[in-house]
Amino acid sequence: NGIPELIRDGVDGLLFTASDVAELVGALGRMMDDSAMRRKMAELSRKRVADKYHLRKNVDRQAGVLKEWMDKSREPATAAKEKTIPVELPKPPTV
Question: How far is the C-alpha of 9 from the C-alpha of 6, rounded, in Å?
């Protein structure tokens, strides 16, 4: 089945059932026979990875999630008075 979270079948790659050799052969044959399709899929897959999996974008996205979580944790506790438990994080290794 490939990795449908990463590859859109027929758009930026070809998916096939892992145990189906005939599907694999067919997908490889299509790639070998159609250079325009190969180039287009290569271009789209590079763009998708650059857009969706770029380190800076992912770091910024995660920082936003953490900031939102921290902002919510600073809001006044509800009537049940939430308890917080202090957590000591491990120190990063020295290089």
Answer: 10
**DSSP assigned state of 9:** B
pLDDT at 92: 73
Token pair, residue 27, equals: 């997908």
- The residues pairing with 9 across neighbouring beta strands, listed in sequence order, are 13
User: What φ, ψ does residue 9 adopt, rounded to 5°?
Assistant: -55, 125
Average pLDDT, the chain: 84
Crossing angle of the two packed helices 35-52 and 21-33, in degrees rounded to 10: 100
Higher model confidence: residue 80 or residue 49?
49
Q: Are 47 and 41 in contact (CB under 8 A)?
A: no
pTM attached to this predicted model: 0.54
